[in-house]
Every structure is written in structure tokens, then in C-alpha cells.
Amino acid sequence: MFDVDDTLVDFSGATRDALASWLTSLGVDGSERAYALWRQAEKRHFASYTEGLISFAEQRRRRCADFCAALGLPEPADTDAWYAGYLECFAPALRLFDDVLPTLDLLAARGVTLAALSNSSSAHQDEKLRRFGVRDRFRALVCVDDVGGRGKPHPAIFHAACQALNLPPGRVIYVGDVLDTDARAATGAGLRGVWLDRSASADPPSDVPVLHRLDQVCHLLDQKGPRA
After folding, report:
1. pLDDT of 75-122, one tens digit each?
2. Opening angle at CA 169, ends 228 and 220, nearest 5
């Protein structure tokens, strides 16, 4: 079972490039400071969405308004239209990581059942995976709106995904790019949580396995024990 953004697709890289392009088209400097402010606003309001407090569209509106205020820009008269302009830059910038298709092929050859789990909306992630031609590789796609707004790190979303596979949590390896929200939360829910640390920028934790490339997950299938 895989997380989607920054695990299968390079969400952060696309965000950085798209934001710079969109701001440049508005005559604004798309600097690193702008990117940092955008991600701060995203983190703040996306959390409200994953907690079931606001809709997916509303978190986008609030993120846009907060970002413009923080950057000293006038608040857009139509935040939906502003965000739509950003998305026109984002869509062509998004890519699968180069290790995704080889990994999916290796797992398929071994008969491993696959699923995707995301804190984003199901329609949004379904479209994203279909765009790259990999949606049919996953028997299930489970997102926040499929479980009543109870996103990661809540155990409910992990358990819902396991139920969709008709497998007990202990039979499922979950791989995600965020140590606490993905790997440790999955472990706490009874799955075998794995942290995908592509940048290898941190000391490896002792409580969960760490991968630096997605294809390394195949080695976990041959390991035994609680950290397999």
C-alpha cells in the first residue's frame, strides 16, 4: 500500500515549479520564500480538511487567501479562479518518480496486491493516477472523503484501506514519505509502516524501516519479523 503525493508522484517538485511559473505570469517573484509560505498555508488548511472540518475546495480557497496575505499581495476577488490558474501550471509539471513503474512491475510479477492511500480527495487522486496510466494497478484507492474526513494519522483510514483489500493490517506493508503521518501512523494502526526518505537527509529512525528508493520495498517482502 502506497501513499500518493511525494511517494508515487513528485508533488513537491511540481508545486515548486508550478508556483514559480504562476507567480511569474502575475508579475510576482516566485522565490523560495514564496514557496515556503505556500507550503505553510497548505499544511495549515489541509490539516483542517483531513480532520473533516472543511471541504477540499474550501481548504484551497483559504490556502490561497492566506498565501496572498503573507506575500503582501491583494486577496484575489475570485480565489477559485486564482487557484485554477495555478493548477494550469501544476498539471504539466507533475511527474511519476522514475522508480515507480519498475517497482509496480516487480511487485506485479510477484503477485503482490497493491493499493493506494491518500489524505487528498478520491476524485483528485483517481484522476492523477489515471493520468499516468497506473490507476488500474491498484485494487483499491482510499482517501479522506471515503472515511468521513478521518485522514492520516488516524487509524481509521488505514483500517478502511485494509478492509478494501480484505486483508488484516498485519499482512499489509504501507510506504509513505512522511515519517510520523505515514510510517509511524501505519505502524500504530497495526500495519508494517515504512518510511520513504528519498533525500536521505535525516538519521534513520530505529522504530520503522527506511527506504531511499521505492524499488527497495521488494526486499522487505523477503524479510521476517516485526520490522519486515
Report:
1. 899 999 999 999 999 999 999 999 999 999 999 999 999 999 999 999
2. 20
